Amino acid sequence: MRVGTIIVAVLHTTVAHAQAPLRAVVDTMRWSPALSMQYRGVSGVDLSPDGRLLAYVVRNAVMTDEQSEYLSHVWVAAVDGSFNVQYTQGEHSANAPKFSPSGEHLAFTSARSGTTQVWVMRVRGGEAEQVTEAEGNVTEFGWSPDGGRIAYLMVDPDPEPVKTAKREKSYVTVVDQDFRYAHLYTVRIGRGADGGRDTRRLTSGPLHVTSFNWSPDGKTLVFAHKSDPTINNAETDISMVPADSGAVRSLVSRPGSDADPCFSPNGDWVAFTSHGGQPERVGLSDVWVIAVGGGPARKLADTPDRNANLIGWSADGARVYVLEAVHTSRQHQESKCHREPGIKIVRDSAIKHRERRGLVGNNVAQRIDDDKACHVGRPDVEGY
After folding, report:
1. Cα separation of the two ends of the chain
2. Burial of 80 by CB count in 10 Å (0-12 exposed, 13-18 middle, 19+ buried)?
3. Secondary structure letter of residue 40 according to DSSP
4. pLDDT (tens digit per residue) in 22-45
5. Which helix (H) or strand (E) element contains residue 8?
6. Contacts 24+ apart (CB under 8 A), 132-139
7. 210-249 in b/e burial notation, b at 16+ Cβ within 10 A?
8. For the whole model, what pTM was predicted?
9. Cα 215 to Cα 262: distance, rounded to the nearest angstrom
10. Where are the alpha helices (DSSP H) in 168-277?
11. Is 203 strand, coil or helix?
C-alpha cells in the first residue's frame, strides 16, 4: 500500500483555499482563543471509489452579535486539482460525507429538518434528499455494499410520559437509570410503491450499539455494543445480525472492551480492537481477528504503543491497517495476517509502521485498497 502524495497535496491545497480569506497570522502574533477562531478545521475525509474525488468537511467559526457557533459544510475536490467546490450551503451544518459504492451519490448528515438525519445528493449536482426519517438523531451511518440501503444508529426517543413531563417542566433525571439506547436500523434508498422507504430495526432491548460494519455481500452486519451508554462503561462485546432480520448472534463476549469490528474483504474474518479479555480502564487497544463462524479470537502483532485505532483491511485481506499516536506524532501502521489455508490467522512477529508527521484535525483513511488511501497532512510525505 502507498499513501498517494497527490491526494494529500489536494487536501493541503484545499485547506489553503478554504482558509485564505481568514488567514492573517504573522510570526509576532501570539496564539489565543480569538486567533484560533480564524482557522478553519478540516475533517471527515472520504475518497470516491474510483479515487478521483475527495469529499471533506470544512468547519467555520461564526461569531456575530447574535451568533457564536461553528458551521460545517461539505466540499468536494478533484484529486488532480482541477476543481474544489462547496457542495452544501445554508445555516444548518452538514457532516460525515460518504460516497456511495457506485460513486454516483454522496450521503451526509444534517439537522436541516429539525433532527440529525441522513441526506443524499447526486455527485454531479442537484438538491439533497432526506432518506432517513428517524424520530431521534442519527449518530452514525454507512452504505450497504450494493448502495441499495443505508444502515444507521439512532438513540431511542423519549417515551410519551417523559415527553409530557418535560413539557410540563416536571421531569426529573435519575442518574444511571432510564437509559436511552442507540440501536441499529437500515433504510432502503429507493422508494416503494406507496412512496415510502422500507426501514428495518435490527436491534432492540437494553443494548447500546457503538459501531457497525457491513459484510461484503451486504447480508450481515457486525456491531459492537454495551449494556448501557454511560461513559464509564468500557465493557463492550461484538455481535452479528442479518440485514433482513433482528436475529442477533454473539461473536465475541468476554470481559473488557471488544470494539470497532470490521469484515475482511472476503467476509470470512472480522478484525476488531480489544483489551484481550481483561478490563483496562486507560489505554491498551490491540488488534484481534476472529472467524465469522466463531471460535477463538487471535491477536495480531503489538503496535508500538498498544493503543491502535483500526482503519481497515487491505484489498487482498493480507494486512490490517491501524492508526496510532506514537510519541508526538500519529502513525499509520500495517500488520500482516499470515494465513494457513482455511484454518487460522497467526500472529506476525513484526509490524511495519511508517511515520506520518504534521497531521491536522481528524486523520482519516476511509477507503483503502492496495494503491491508495487518504489522510489530512503535509503534501511532502513519502508514500508506502
Report:
1. 6
2. exposed
3. P
4. 444 444 467 787 787 788 888 889
5. helix 5-19
6. 132/187, 132/199, 133/197, 133/199, 134/185, 137/111, 138/109, 139/182
7. bbbbbbeebebbbbbbbeeeeeeebbbbbbbbebeeeebe
8. 0.81
9. 8
10. none
11. coil
Return the C-alpha cell found at 98: 460518504
The string of pLDDT tens digits covering residues 207-221 is 999 999 999 999 999
Q: What is the per-residue DSSP string for 124-175?
A: T----EE----SS-EEEEEE-TTSSEEEEEEEPPPPHHHHHHHHTT---PPT
User: Which residue shows C-alpha cell 456511495?
Assistant: 100
Cell digits of residue 196: 415510502
Taking the C-alpha atoms of residue 299 and residue 82, their distance in angstroms, rounded to an integer, is: 44
The number of residues in the chain equals 384
3-state DSSP assignment of residue 330: strand
Give the amino acid at 218: G
Contacts of 138 (CB under 8 A, 6+ apart): 109, 115, 116, 117, 118, 132, 152, 153, 154
**DSSP 8-state symbol, 123:** T
